[in-house]
Amino acid sequence: MRAVRPVLVLLAVATGACVLPARAADFDCVIEPREIIELRAPIEGLIEKVNVDRGDNVRRGQDLVVLDAAVDRAAAAIARHRSVMDGAVRSGETRVEFSTAKVKRQKSLEENNFVSAQAREEAVTEQQLAQSELQDAKDNRKLAELELARQQEVIRMKTIRSPIDGVVVERLLNVGEFAEAGVGRKPILKLAEIDTLYVEVLMPVEAYGQVKAGMDAQVLPEIPAGARYTGHVKVIDRIVDAASGTFGVRLELANPQRRMPAGIRCKAQFTGIDVKPQRAAAHKAPAG
């Protein structure tokens, strides 16, 4: 029995070593805005007003830029007046009423052999022409209503509103400059959404399969010093870079009150990732 005791002690020591907490592996990362938008004019025009500047907070739907719409407002006023003009319609209705009554009289007279069939046919033709003119007047009024709606839409498009809650990163055009529409044209403003941040982490291939969507990770940004935040794995790249032996992981990080700036470096800590420290330290995040 005495020979067995040392074995039991060694087993107990070995068992105790197995319950040590797992070491967190550190990886370089960069904190980026959730979205960056280059705001261009949907329609060409001269910039009349820019309501924000670099560094300003903006709200979704806020008026940011106003293009000159004087000509469009004048065209809308003309279309509005034409859409309510009823002189041509009333004249057409009167002609239809008169020609209809005339047809009835001509038919009655023809039945009593007081007028020829040709006279009745002429009256019917006059009735059909009057009906066509009335329909033409109604169509013109409807076209004026549609033209008014189009001009109002053009005027609405000349007020450019923010599509997101965020901040102004850059102002590229100023009052008096011409804003061009279309892809590739110079934007007026550049906006960034930073209420939620993306943390782009570069990880060694050995960690592939150990990182799972929804997994928590600790994010330690350069500034403010000593800060620590919890992010969640949102995206895991399905393609590994063969040259560097790395793959990308994106964390989603809440940024209440926009306290943390975007565009800074950080460290991401994953608990339970089994990667050799020297290999993990060798992989750096791309410059942000």
Automatic annotation (TrEMBL):
Residues 39-179 form the CzcB-like barrel-sandwich hybrid domain. Residues 1-24 form the signal peptide. Residues 198-271 form the CusB-like beta-barrel domain. It holds the Pfam family Beta-barrel_RND_2. Residues 120-154 form a coiled coil. InterPro entries: Beta-barrel_RND_2 (IPR058792), BSH_CzcB-like (IPR058647), RND_pump_MFP (IPR006143). NCBIfam families: RND_mfp. Belongs to the membrane fusion protein (MFP) (TC 8.A.1) family. This is Efflux RND transporter periplasmic adaptor subunit. It comes from Ramlibacter agri.
